[in-house]
Amino acid sequence: MALFLFSIPLPVSAGLYTESCGMVWEDACIPFERNNETAYNEELFASFAPIAANLTEAPDLSNMSWSDAFRETCAYMEERYAFTEWRGVDWDSLYATYAPKIADAEKNGDRAAYYRTLREFSGAIPDGHVMVLAPDDFGAKYADIGGGYGLAVARLDSGKVIVIYVAEGSEAERAGVRFGDEVVSWNGRPIGEAIDAASIIWAPVKPSTGEGILLQKQRFLTRAPVGTPAKVGIAGPEGSAPRTINLTAADDGYETLARTSIFLGREANDGKAGSSAELKGMISNDTVTSRTLPGGIAYIAVYEEFYDVYQPFRAAVKDAIASGAPGIVVDLRFNRGGDDNLAAAYAGWFVDRPVFYEYGTTYDPGTGEPAVLWESWTQPRPDRYTGPVALLVSPYTISSGEGLPKVFAESGTGAIVSWYGTNGAFGMESMGPLLPLGILTAFPTGASLDESGSIQVDSNASMVGGVAPTVRVPLDTETLARAMAGEDVQLAYAVEWIGGQNRESSPAPTAAAPGWAAVLAAFAVIAVWYGRR
After folding, report:
1. 3-state secondary structure 182-242
2. In angstroms, what CA-CA distances link 152 with 21, 163, 370?
3. Would you call the peptide bond into 100 cis, given omega within 30 degrees of 0 as the criterion?
4. Which range among 395-399, 437-441, 508-512 shows the weakest confidence by mean pLDDT?
5. In Å, what is the CA distance from 453 to each residue of 15, 16, 18, 496?
6. How far apart are CA 161 and CA 183, in angstroms?
7. pLDDT of amino acid 523
8. How distant, in Å, are the alpha carbons of 43, 142, 146, 147, 470 from that of 226?
9. Residue 271 — pLDDT band, cuts 50, 70, 90?
10. What is the dihedral of CA 61, 67, 72, 77, to 10 degrees?
11. Contact 360/1 with Cβ under 8 angstroms?
12. How many helices (H) and strands (E) does the chain have?
């Protein structure tokens, strides 16, 4: 991540941290518009100039004992983690909780228990950027969640929990369970308590907000070790007692997780995915895909932010402009992040005024404090798209994938459409120590700050964060029935919103006028730098 110094000179006091920044980037589009990745990479390195002499590689602890490596990892993370106070992380308590389990796994030579404990440890920190990744899960995941009960549930906006999927030929189907049945208990516990107690350590993209955690808990409630019995309480007719269904978890290839990924935008078996990269591979081999929806609306899906993504994204937007598209839907529901500057550059194609994007920080080992490395802005493109734009997001919209929604929310641009908000993990991720058995760790050593210097987007100790929908799709029996039947309900709501915008304003949107409009825009940029800050 880096900032490119634009040609308009700035006063020394232009930004809160300008004097200490490695770089100031007034227009995030510039390095991507010039299409020179080598030059951009040089700028990436230059942004770290203020602390370059203090940087070292994360330690290799792979030759230590499991217990010693875990102790050193906790100490390393406590020193450098960017959100200890923000998220209220108690490192001493975490170590005291999981160190004995690591020791037991080591004593027994139980690799599965070792890896599972590391997943539990990272899962205890509600931050999608705190991860452990292994070349092998040592059979732990299948042992924990390889079985399904032939049904899946969802919590409605009303608070009621209903069955949304029943597998054909399953024990649940034979017991008479149907779509829409209300589930009131699970193994003798009220359904709300049972959902709260569900483990989500095997979610390939860890949620960071309360609502994202709730989504995954209800999905993983119906997963268990193969052969595990469950008693499911189904509400009967009004005034009658619930009936109890006895089910046994069977190997179904993680089918219930595949069928409930409709919450995320399309069917994808994230139960089989061990990471966001594997999940992305299930969705598309491309970084950007585009098509035309009925009525001429342009649809652009963006799956990650890397340098070579900008040009196809730009081409898709320009095609929409050239065709006179009455609206654009940008689908970020499976966006796994990447380069923050690229997300800021996307936004330039839609905003009508400059928008502050971030101060980027990272831990400085030399001072033991965070250092501000860059300042970046989104500037409107002179040939931008001026029609209605709807963003589709999900709790799998993580890291820089949350950048475009952030800009939309702050500037009032377009709409953000979803059942749920984004992930709420927006920090600057770094590799952590390498652990025994080739297990990698990663966590954020830096935060994204807003114009006043406050942490932005990352969820707080109350698990509130991310970017919320401005058009929230209702979670009710009707919308879930449509989704389970194969309709992309969130996309339908986005298209409906675009239609409403076009009915309210005419003529049809076009590209921003060239010529004098571009000149006036340049003067507006100067006015912003010398006036608004």
Report:
1. EEEEECCEEHHHHHHHCCCCCCCCCCCCHHHHHHHHHHHCCEECCCCEEEEEECCCCCCCC
2. 50, 6, 44
3. no
4. 508-512
5. 10, 8, 12, 37
6. 6
7. 33
8. 52, 8, 6, 4, 41
9. confident
10. 100
11. yes
12. 18, 22
**Cβ–Cβ < 8 Å for 316, 290:** yes
Q: What is the CA radius of gyration of the chain?
A: 24
Q: Which CATH class is domain 143-273?
A: mainly beta
* Dihedral pair phi/psi, residue 139, rounded to 5°: 80, 0
Contact 489, 398 (CB under 8 A): no
- The torsion angle over the Cα atoms of residues 197, 201, 207 and 208, rounded to 10 degrees, is 80
3-state secondary structure 47-113: CCHHHHHHCCCCCECCCCCHHHHHHHHHHHHHHHCCCHHHHCCCHHHHHHHHHHHHHHHHHHCCHHH
Tell me how crowded residue 218 is: count the other CB atoms within 10 A of its CB.
24
CA distances from 20 to 234, 340, 341 (A): 61, 20, 19
The answer to whether 97 touches 105, Cβ cutoff 8 Å, is: no
More confident residue, 508 or 52: 52
Beta strand 369-378 with 23-25 is parallel
Q: Could you give the residue range(s) of every CATH 3.90.226.10 domain in the chain? A: 18-53+278-527
Tokens of 375: 């300042």
Give ranges for CATH 2.30.42.10 in the chain. Answer: 143-273
Burial label for 246, CB within 10 Å (0-12, 13-18, 19+), is: exposed
Determine the Cα–Cα distance for residues 458 and 129; give it in Å rounded to an integer: 10
**CA distances (Å), origin 330, targets 66, 292, 393:** 44, 12, 9
Residue 6's φ and ψ, nearest 5 degrees, are -75, 165
Distance of CA 135 to the CA centre of its chain: 23
Tens-place pLDDT, residues 169-196? 999 999 999 999 999 999 999 999 999 9
Q: Which is nearest to 399 in space by CA: 467, 331, 347, 349?
A: 467
**Which residues lie closer than 8 Å to 55 by C-beta, 6 or more apart?**
48, 365
What is the rounded CA–CA span in Å between residue 155 and residue 183?
10
pLDDT tens for residues 152-168?
Answer: 999 999 999 999 999 99
Q: Kindly give, in sequence order, each residue whose CB lies less than 8 Å from that of residue 386, ignoring residues fewer than 6 positions away.
A: 352, 509, 510, 511, 512
Is domain 18-53+278-527 in CATH 2.40.160.20, yes or no?
no
Q: Is the pLDDT of residue 511 over 70?
A: no
Transcribe 99-160 into DSSP letters. Answer: HHHHHHHHHHT-HHHHHHHHHHHHHTS--TT-EEE-S--TTHHHHHH-EE-SEEEEE-TTS-
Q: Is 291 exposed, middle or buried (0-12, 13-18, 19+ CB in 10 A)?
A: exposed
